[in-house]
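#struct-help
A.M.: can someone run this one for me? Single chain, 248 residues.
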Amino acid sequence: MPRTRSIADLRKELAAKETQLAKLRAQRDKLAKRLTGIEREIAVLDGRPVKIKRKGRKKIAAKKGRRARGGPSLADVLARVMADKGNVKVAEAAKLALRAGYKSKSSQFANIVSQTLSADKRFKKIARGIYALKGGGRAAVKRTKKKVAKKTPAERGKPAKKRAAKKPAAKKTPRGPAKKAVRAGSLRDILVKVMSGKDAVTVAEAQTAVLDAGYKTKAKDFRFIVNKTLAKDDLFKNVGRGRYALKG
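D.P.: on it. Structure tokens below:
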């Protein structure tokens, strides 16, 4: 016959299952709370009313504030209170609207203001949670200043100033007699000429001497070309880091 479990064994098994059940319920509530917060943030950023239902959980909804009959809408109130402001945060805009007389019993009034600012074309988003009225505040002042600056003296009621006649540009003369309009030989020949009688020169010194000798180039990195010529030509030898001399 199978062994019958005692009451103590049954109580231990029941206690273990109740403990496991309590842990699972706590884990479920924690995950549900986190998921509710994430869905609320998604709804706010998406510009939709926050209305989330969870089975066995309290409903979280942003009720729209009702305005008085014939009164201005929330968007109109926000446009009026933000007209002389620059960049305004959502929380500050909500406070300004309530101070201006807008009535709302919603506990999520800031979310309603955020949705209104993002949906109405009269407002523009500056950054996360920050909005400004298009054409109002500092932007309008800047545009007015630009328009005044573009007006002619006659339009501003001022006599136009006579502009002095432009002097013809003076012809540039070459610096020093050493530079010529045409090349005085190849780069190799000029390097041999400027380096003769010298023990050793750096690449930068060789470049300066070649240009002073009248060599013309449009290369952006002429120093690299000089360095390459000195390193590969058999007439020159490397006597140190970045220093070259004529062989013999």
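A.M.: thanks! Residues 84 and 137 are 5 Å apart (CA to CA).
D.P.: also worth noting: DSSP finds eight helices and eight strands in the chain.
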